[in-house]
C-alpha cells in the first residue's frame, strides 16, 4: 500500500472528513482510493489521514477481493462504490443491502397480432379491478380450464428457458430479453409488461430484493440468489 502521506492529492470540492468523530470539511483524497475508483473517502488533514490509516486501508483490501458490482462498502453511512450514474436518482434512499440499481434498456414491444390485456397501453388493469370489486367467485367453463392448462404449460416452457440462461456474468436484462422473445414465439403476451407500468417482461429479484425486481444491466455474480417470475393470460406466477 502507498504511504498515506506521499502522493496525497487535493480535490476541488469540499466534503466531510471520513475519520470517525472528526466532522471537519475535507478536500484531501487518498491516492489509493483514487486508483481503485473508490469515491467518498476524503480527509481534512494528513494527520487525520494517518490517524485513521489502520482502519481505512482495509477498504483497499476489500476492493481487491470483490468486484464493484458485488460489494458496496459504507463509510460514515455513504456508499463508497457507486455502481452507475443512477446513484443520484436514488440519493438518500435507504437500501437494505449492497445491491444497487443499474441501467435499463428501452421498453420492449409486442407484435400487433398477439392478443394483449387491457393494461398493455395504459398500464391500468381495468378488468382485474372490476373482478376484485365484484366480490364474486368465477367458475371457469371447460374452454377456460383448458386455457389455464395451456397457460401453465407455456409458462413452464418460458420459465425453463430463463432458468437455462442463468449464469455468472449474464445480466437480468438479457434474461428478460429471453423471456420476452420466448413469449412472442409462443404467440402470447408477457403479462408483467406495462402491468401498473412495470417496464419489463419478467421480474428478476436478486438477493435482498424479495420480489418484483426490474431486470437491468447488472451482471449476475457468483453466489447471487435469483427469483424469476413470469405470468401469462391466466396469471401464472413462478416462484
From TrEMBL:
Belongs to the peptidase M24A family. Methionine aminopeptidase type 1 subfamily. One of its GO terms (molecular function) is zinc ion binding. Residues 14-67 form the C6H2-type domain. The keyword Ribosomal protein does not apply. InterPro entries: Creatinase/aminopeptidase-like, Pept_M24, Zfn-C6H2. Keywords: Metal-binding, Zinc, Zinc-finger. GO terms for cellular component: cytosol. Pfam families: Peptidase_M24, zf-C6H2. It comes from Hydatigena taeniaeformis. This is Methionine aminopeptidase. PROSITE patterns: ZF_C6H2.
Amino acid at each position: 500500500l502507498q504511504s498515506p502521506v506521499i502522493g496525497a492529492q487535493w480535490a476541488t470540492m469540499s466534503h466531510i472528513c471520513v475519520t470517525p468523530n472528526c466532522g471537519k470539511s475535507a478536500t484531501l483524497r487518498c491516492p489509493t482510493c483514487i486508483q481503485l475508483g473508490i469515491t467518498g473517502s476524503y480527509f481534512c488533514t494528513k494527520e487525520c489521514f494517518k490517524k485513521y490509516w489502520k482502519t481505512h486501508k482495509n477498504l483497499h483490501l476489500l476492493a481487491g477481493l470483490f468486484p464493484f458490482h458485488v460489494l458496496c462498502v459504507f463509510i460514515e453511512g455513504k456508499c463508497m462504490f457507486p455502481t452507475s450514474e443512477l446513484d443520484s436518482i436514488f440519493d438518500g434512499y435507504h437500501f437494505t443491502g449492497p445491491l444497487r440499481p443499474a441501467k435499463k434498456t428501452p421498453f420492449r414491444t409486442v407484435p400487433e397480432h398477439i392478443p394483449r390485456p387491457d393494461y398493455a397501453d395504459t398500464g391500468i388493469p381495468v378488468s382485474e379491478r372490476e373482478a376484485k370489486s365484484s366480490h364474486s367467485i368465477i367458475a371457469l367453463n371447460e374452454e377456460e380450464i383448458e386455457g389455464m392448462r395451456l397457460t401453465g404449460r407455456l409458462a413452464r416452457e418460458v420459465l425453463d428457458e430463463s432458468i437455462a440462461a442463468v449464469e455468472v456474468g449474464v445480466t437480468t436484462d438479457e434474461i428478460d430479453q429471453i423471456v420476452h422473445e420466448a413469449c412472442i414465439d409462443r404467440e402470447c403476451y408477457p403479462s408483467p409488461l406495462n402491468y401498473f407500468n412495470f417496464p419489463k417482461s419478467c421480474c428478476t429479484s436478486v438477493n435482498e430484493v424479495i420480489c418484483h425486481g426490474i431486470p437491468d444491466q447488472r451482471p449476475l455474480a457468483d453466489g447471487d440468489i435469483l427469483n424469476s417470475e413470469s405470468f401469462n393470460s391466466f396469471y401464472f406466477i413462478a416462484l
